[in-house]
């Protein structure tokens, strides 16, 4: 009797070992295929990056050639201008046009036969500029030289304010110098800050109209002092503002010139701020990191295999083959419930312990029972593992027990090592493509 028990135990142990070895082999082959796919994708990505680098180099060569030609043409024109010197014969003709579109242009010809003719031309030009214009012409000129939003405001003025130049100017001044507009301008000025990616010149161009709007009605000296103070207070970074303040500028132009000098010096110390190959270098860095991760995955699986570690299995097409190979066994499931002489059931699987790690699934994620081989439930909920009964109500109760929410069990399943590593490789590749 003891010998028979040992034989049964050895057979079970051997089957369990073979099953465990089969599980490990399939997981390792699955990981090897995943690593091979990642390696193939990395190779394709590297080849695409190399082609992009060649294309970028070719484009840069074309741009540099075009730029060199433009510089040569400019130098040739400058050389011609310098060689002309002060010779009046080489001075080009200049046409001066007044602000009024209906006034013809007065040409000043340097090739005049005498200085007297040139003086006559200048005299005619002065007379045209000093000519008296009608009120209607002045109103038309206001509308012509203004841009939005003053143009829109001028169009909304009443007709009484549009009859004369003075009334139109007073109406526009009253609108743009109102306390409401001034408070809005001051609020915009308080929120104005130099961003880290903004140049000093761009910040100055953005700050000047805000200060001018906030200082409506003040004299020019007060405006210049306020502009200088606001420029120094809103400069960033701190090192740039400190260098400009240490120079103690007296005017806004001096502060702007000093800030541009410091900015250019910082750019020259750091190197060129515009690096055309920087995005490609970033992509290479991401690929190198991904390669290191993949190598680490291979190392971890090798160590786990040597240490007898166990991996959870994911869905595999071989699970379907195993399921269909057990068709004959499933057709004879009624014989498993026949009692033997010891009062036990003929199926030895009833005596084996349930292993929560045996979660086989199909390719679409549906659970597979390791006991009966059917799809739709796991071994722990298989009704065929329970002893038969002559009471039909108990069978119905067993079916109700086994009809639980498989979708909830699928959503709460633990992710396999292979799927986690594959998802990590895919996310790393997507980050490399985005960069």
Give the helices and strands, then pairings.
Elements: H1 2-84, E1 94-96, E2 106-108, H2 115-129, H3 135-145, H4 150-155, H5 165-176, H6 179-190, H7 200-214, H8 220-233, H9 238-246, H10 252-270, H11 278-306, H12 317-325, H13 327-331, E3 360-361, E4 367-368, H14 392-402, H15 406-411, H16 417-434
Antiparallel strand pairs: 1-2, 3-4
In brief:
The chain is mainly α and 435 residues long. 63% of the residues lie in helices and 2% in strands.
Characterization of this structure:
The protein is built from 16 helices and four strands. 63% of the residues lie in helices and 2% in strands. Helix 1 (2-84) runs antiparallel to helix 11 (278-306), helix 6 packs antiparallel against helix 7 (200-214) and helix 9 packs across helix 10. Among the domains are: 116-176, no CATH class; 179-270, Non-ribosomal Peptide Synthetase Peptidyl Carrier Protein, Chain A, CATH 1.10.1200. The chain has helices at residues 2-84, 115-129, 135-145, 150-155, 165-176, 179-190, 200-214, 220-233, 238-246, 252-270, 278-306, 317-325, 327-331, 392-402, 406-411, 417-434; strands at residues 94-96, 106-108, 360-361, 367-368. It has 435 residues and is mainly alpha-helical. The longest helix is centred in the N-terminal third of the chain and has 83 residues, at 2-84.
